[in-house]
Amino acid sequence: FYEAALRVLGRHGHRRRRDQSPREFLDSVRERRGEAIRPFVSITKTFEGARYGHRDVTAEERARLLREAEELSARLAAPPDEPSV
Q1: Residue 27 DSSP SS3
Q2: How confident is residue 78, by pLDDT bands cut at 50, 70 and 90?
Q3: What angle do CA 49, 34, 4 make, to 5 degrees?
Q4: Which helix (H) or strand (E) holds 41?
């Protein structure tokens, strides 16, 4: 699920450097894309728990996170909101 999200972000010009932690990458993308990457917040937190906290990800969570990766793709493909006047 995390790799799927990284592929989505990569297609939109956001690539994680080897020296970036998942949280550092999340913060750098959030600075540039704001609320559009909200699904990636959940994906990153779950990945960190599984990777560093040795927490198992259930099949239900995995399915939800893959849907969130699809939502992330749709949000990044959408034109940015027009500023209000």
Answers
A1: helix
A2: confident
A3: 45
A4: helix 38-51
3-state secondary structure of 83: coil
Q: What distances in angstroms separate CA 1 from CA 28, 47, 80, 82, 84, one per listed residue?
A: 20, 8, 25, 31, 35
Measured distance CA(49)–CA(52) in Å, rounded: 6
Amino acid occupying residue 25:
F
Question: In this structure, what DSSP letter does residue 78 have?
Answer: S
pLDDT tens by residue, 21-64 = 999 999 999 999 998 999 999 999 999 999 999 899 999 999 99
State the Cα torsion 35-39-45-48 to the nearest 10°. Answer: -120
Q: Residue 56 has which token pair?
A: 């198992």
- DSSP, res 49: H
Which pTM does this prediction carry? 0.85
